[in-house]
Amino acid sequence: MLERSFVQDGKRDVKLDEYFKNNLRRAGYVGCHVQKTPIAMRIVLRVERPGLVIGRKGSAIEQMTRDLEAKFKLENIQIKVEEVSVPELNSAIMARRIASSLERGLHFRRVLHWSLEKIMASGAKGAEIVVSGKLVGKGGKSRTERVSAGYLKKAGEPAKQVLEAQAQAIKKAGIIGVTVKIVPPNVVFPDKVKVTGEEFGSTETKRNQENEPKGNPKETPRAKN
Hints:
This protein is α+β, with helices and mostly antiparallel strands and about 220 residues long.
């Protein structure tokens, strides 16, 4: 019974995420966290523009609460809205922005370089943007364009610290896939260790001290006759 409960909760969370993606696109929906307590069900929404979710005097969030209770058969829902502090360091937001710019007809190279500059200027240690599809004209062939900057891990355990998200730009010529990878400023990789001289001392200073010639002890001056 416990395993079945976990499965049901997982299905519910996936359906809620799809609902928020479809209904909070303009608000810059990033993700949600669902926590069920004996008293109520708490849903934390992370968005780029909280005002669009809350609405005037809370009207929009009240309507959303009623819709969730009716659609998903939930009770005592408490919705909390959190704003993404630095959108340029969020891979999901940047992927969606790039897809939106491509749908508006902006040139893909301009969009890629502008987005990469924004990400790195916000403090990211590394970033990579990949777009794939018919990027130029209706009759053009599918191609892949990639831009990157900074330090980025792509394999092994450290790669799990890289934020990755995908989005799609729907155009007349076809669908363009967008993938954004960002290394946040607070990430420390195992191969990037900084050793300070205050704790361990300067290696060069120690080497000079070891190689320094030791002089003979001073002789006691002789007394004059």
